[in-house]
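step 4 of 6: structure.
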Amino acid sequence: MSAPDNPFASLMADYVGECLPLAEEVVERVIALERLWAAGAEWQETHAPLKGLLHTVKGNSAMMGLAPLQELAHVLEDLVGLLGGEAEGRRAGAALLVRGAGLLTDLIRGATAGPIPEIIPAEFAEEVRAFLQAEQGSREDSQVERRMQEQRQVDRRATRAVGEFGGDGTITTIRVDSHRLDALLEYLGEAMIAQASLRDAARPLLNRRRATDESAAIDQAILGLERTLKRLEGALMETRLLPVSTLFGRFTRQVRDLAHSEARQVRLEVAGGETRLDKTIIDRLGEPLVHLLTNAIVHGIETPEERAAVGKPVEAVISLRAVQRSDRVLLTVSDDGRGLDTDRILVRARALGLAPVSDSPSRAELLALAFLPGLSTAEKVSALSGRGVGLDVVAGSIRDLGGQVSVDSEPGRGTTFTLRLPLTVAVLRSLLVRVDGERYAVPLADVAETVRVGEQTLHQVARQGMMTWRDEIIPVLDGGEALAGARPASRPYCVVLRSSPRPRGLMVDAVLGHQEVVVKALDPTLGRPPAIAATTILGDGRVACILDTARLGEQLTRVA
Amino acid sequence: MMIGDNVLEFADRLVTAPAAPAAPEELQLHLVVFNLGREEYAVPIGQVREVVRVTDVTRVPHAPQHIRGVMNLRGRILPVLEVRSRLGLEPAELTQRSRVVVAEIDRRMVGLLVDAVGQVTRLGERSVAAPPEEVRSAGGEAVTGVARLDRRLLILLDLERLLRASGSETAGVPTI
């Protein structure tokens, strides 16, 4: 958890951090322009910021000595200028612009990985120059003048690297390496654990003496420390939040390109880009979202002919939305395609021995089956979605982030995936339980209810424990058996879990109460044990495991 | 107990052999010595970060074989390897002398649970002999050599191999 040793690597990371969002915005705008020009609609507003964006990318690239990128941004800037004035070459020019902006984005994204390839951008720049020349003869003179002016601006930019100045000359914004924020978060976690240890250690002392002045003072100090740490946590979390638009930005082009190659007509609608999430979550959300979008295009959306035949608009719409609901963020990916085929899912599930619990499964149960391994309903393997990645992998990566994913689908009308994500990954609200002397933290978001269970409410059906809960018969799992391979024992409490398609019960010896725990990733030496998501350190300094309740549920699904 | 018996037998043979005079240019091994039962084992000091008392070790369900659990090392979560069971020895009760040797293996921090920790010692490279075949097979290749130190016998362990073999197998998942 340290900053890169190489100062150049750190500068390069800053460069990518600043330029990638700009390049992604360029991509989005030029794709929109292409559409607007084709439709003959108002385009000036979309076009206006492009030169500035490209100019900044060019300046930063020059500062980093990335000549190929500087050159690429430069020719694109010229191209944008030309197309803003001329109406004739726009069609061909727009396609060139889309390609160039995509190339620029890819090269910037790869800049930290190794040297920038020179031939590809150089050849592209040549192509653009040829286009420019064909469109508007030679403009050499004005070019030279502009270049000199730009160099002066680059020189000016070089003087400010770390901060931005407010109106009165004080620094108002500071750029900080994200590794430093990670380290701060780790120290905060340790401070919170230390505070909890202090509180637990002082408790017998405070209980024993009847409120003397000293014990009241200790009590006050501990409470004060707790409040301050809470505020510190809130403030630190705040600094780590980024708008999801930083993530959504790159999808516009990917959707456009994939739709082209799959011969689909698709428009991507994005909403709620200003919704904010922890940086770690944003970093790890890209891949699952790409899978969902790819699935939507390749499997969800019909060909234009099929759509016309059933009276749907030829252009399909995929919408990507984000919205915050209390301490969760909901992300939805919807398409208006053919919907999931629940009959096929059921057939496949039966073939794989993953049949649902009941004989006449509800639609929700059938849809939930889609997340089980091996149930991808792809009819053909395409270049992009045929990577062997199914919905089970998507669900797994969302669970790793402490989130849940669900799906709703209507035949002929489309499919909607909903991702529920925590705002932060560092602190987890949990229910602490005890099984065979060990304590475990159960994520509170997964807990439907905790009930005291009498012998008469528990039943054994073919070695499977069952229980009546809210007029429903649900399977129950013995905590000792699931977590320690121990023999099932009589345990008085049942934690009803809602992390799997159907509620399940987990029998435990004791429920110790709610606690906010600091999440510590599972050490790689421990492998990837099923049923354990992470670890934490409790107030008494002991380590406890955080349960991956969905995977506990999977065990039940498979045998039921 | 295989390792112990074989090593003792081998030790008898070694001790009766005359010790080679140490050459001045001979490479010196710097080792941390710990005990498992009557045997003394040694690991390179360069890989040992510290030695700590055993605090509470939390069991991790379905962890790889020979991983006893995890412990809190000043806010850091440290996996603890049961060296006894890893080497095919009987498990032993924790005592006042039990220690965790905190080692860095393949850039990971791992705790090694041992019965007791002895001294740090230097050893000429030439006094290390290849382990007898039986010892090697029982230790899963983790035993790289044996060496005579005065009248004692040290069993040299390779930590990468010790960890590798233990991480590759996972305990079975119970089915209901």
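step 5 of 6: annotate
 - Chain A has four domains: 7-161, 177-242, 249-422, 427-559.
 - The longest strand of chain A covers residues 316-325.
step 6 of 6: archive
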